Amino acid sequence: MTGRGRLAVLPPPDHCTDPPLALRELVVTVVNKAGLKKEYDFADLPVPEPMQRSLAEVFADQSRCWTAHASATTFWEKLLVFARFLSEQESPPQDLDGLTAAMLKRWRARHIATNTGRHTLQMIRQLLLRDLRLISGPVAEELARRVPAPVPSKQSYGKEERERVLLAAQRQFRAAWMRIRENTQLLERWRAGGLDRKSREWRLGQVLDHLAQTGDVPRGQLPGGQSYLKDRGLLGGTKRELTWGRLFATRGELTALTVLLTDRFGWNLSVYDHMPAPTTAPSAGDAKAVTYEVRLEKRRRGSGHWFSTENITDSGADSPGRLITQALEATMHGRALAAVLAPGTDLLMTGRSGNVGRGHQDLDRPQPIGPLFFGISGGDGQAWAQRHQLGGAPFQRTRRTTVTREGRPLQHTQGTHESVYVLPDEHVQRASQKVFEDGVKEALEQAQAAVFGGRLTVAPDTAHQETATADCSDETTSPWPSPDGGCGADFLLCLACPNAHVHPGHHPRLAHLHQKIRSLCSTLPDHAWIAHWRDHLLRLEDLRDKLGPAAWAAALTQVSGADRALVALLLKGDLAP
């Protein structure tokens, strides 16, 4: 609780907070990693007050681990769509317990056909399943229906497209890097006292020193309050590259650098906002080589942050690390000024804004400091592409091109690499049709494997051996033999075995296990849940479909204390075969 009874969701750095217990006002306050607040007023939703309160509670519960306003805002926008849908019903429900399966079927039919709609269905389902009133019964069955994954709409670049994008980025960034490097060399000579005080170079060095310390060249002020450039003749004009751009990269030039880094390393756009300036690490072998430690932070929906350190070596003009060296040189004066204006700030992607004093509304991204800005937004990429007549923003397609070219995951899981980047990509399909077909076949086999592999029986067989999840007809013919000749599978894997026999006595325990595994989906990081629990859940859902919704619902009402204790041991991994 915060002042005046408002609910605050304050995610600490190492763990999620406990969910709030009550609401006095229908306002949820989400605090991002930077400590900035954003409020969401559920009184604005076009639904009755009890429904507003219930939606606020599940939203607050879902938001316990959010560290970015972007996550909260996305869920909020989906909730607005859902609330409008409810308000359009002939008899709008007063609260979540008034939802019906028929209502959710209409909701699904409205959104299932598009990518945006599928995202909406998935996110609203996440929220609704946090209400205990909706975890069983016909509504729960409808919510449990599979929502097809969105079809990726972005494609990698073809060879000619990629070359055109890279040529534009290389020309712009190289011009900036050479301009800043040349002026930096002059400034260093001036600071070292190596110039004649009567020379034009000395006067220019003095201007550059002022620029490095303040972020702008010397200016005067007219009686009317307007400023003017003092050394226009000396600088050669008023253009950015002739004034403050002599030592600082512009927004367009930093965008060009981002395109080149994305093409080289496949980094996600979001990592550039908070990427610290790379530091040097010891290099093995070549004494002239420089190895950089690059620290990446990727924010993951609902699971905090993911960090990685990459070592990148500059051993020559064609080496990957040469671009890092150039990036450090092009941003050195911006980073030095930022450290003076806000001690402790040292972000690689630092540039000088052409509109000093203008901030932005995205509170998840670093705010400007004086004349400096940090990171690159999707809007910057869109503007850069339009300026170079390249179509849409280049970052997603450039990253996709790099990922498919590398042929391995880059800051994502193997499953994401295959399902999101490789299989849907048209260029990959055309270039390696045979490999694509083999991959689809393998994926289909894996999907078919995640089903209940045993038999349903009406009663236990005394000749069978009882396990925690099923009865085993013959452990000596297990698909997963142990070194001693028995079965080496864990009890959860029993449901995949053809020797498994499930009778009505197992139904309550397995229905309860299904509930508990499904709840883990919203509490664990995606990669951990997929690796450890997804296949088990799919087998249980296949079993549920075979038994039918009525039998499954009945089983949930018959769960015993022993069933709950056994399931708890299974989930903790404390129960060994």
Description:
This protein has helices at residues 49-62, 69-87, 101-111, 115-128, 138-143, 159-191, 200-214, 232-235, 251-265, 321-341, 378-387, 395-406, 414-422, 426-431, 433-449, 507-520, 526-532, 534-547, 549-556, 561-572; strands at residues 7-9, 27-31, 37-41, 219-221, 227-229, 279-281, 290-299, 305-314, 350-352, 372-374, 455-456, 465-466, 471-472, 500-502. It is built from 20 helices and 14 strands. The chain has a 4-stranded mixed β-sheet with strand order 11-14-13-12, with no helix packed on it. Strands 1-2-3 form a 3-stranded mixed β-sheet, with helices on one face. The chain has a 3-stranded antiparallel β-sheet with strand order 6-7-8. A hairpin with a 5-residue loop joins strand 7 (290-299) and strand 8 (305-314). The protein has 577 residues and is α+β, with helices and mostly antiparallel strands.
Features of the shown structure:
single chain, alpha+beta, four-stranded mixed sheet, 577 residues
Helices and strands, with pairings:
Blueprint lengths: L6 E3 L17 E5 L5 E5 L7 H14 L6 H19 L13 H11 L3 H14 L9 H6 L15 H33 L8 H15 L4 E3 L5 E3 L2 H4 L15 H15 L13 E3 L8 E10 L5 E10 L6 H21 L8 E3 L19 E3 L3 H10 L7 H12 L7 H9 L3 H6 L1 H17 L5 E2 L8 E2 L4 E2 L27 E3 L4 H14 L5 H7 L1 H14 L1 H8 L4 H12 L5
Parallel strand pairs: 1-2, 11-14
Antiparallel strand pairs: 2-3, 4-5, 6-7, 7-8, 9-10, 12-13, 13-14
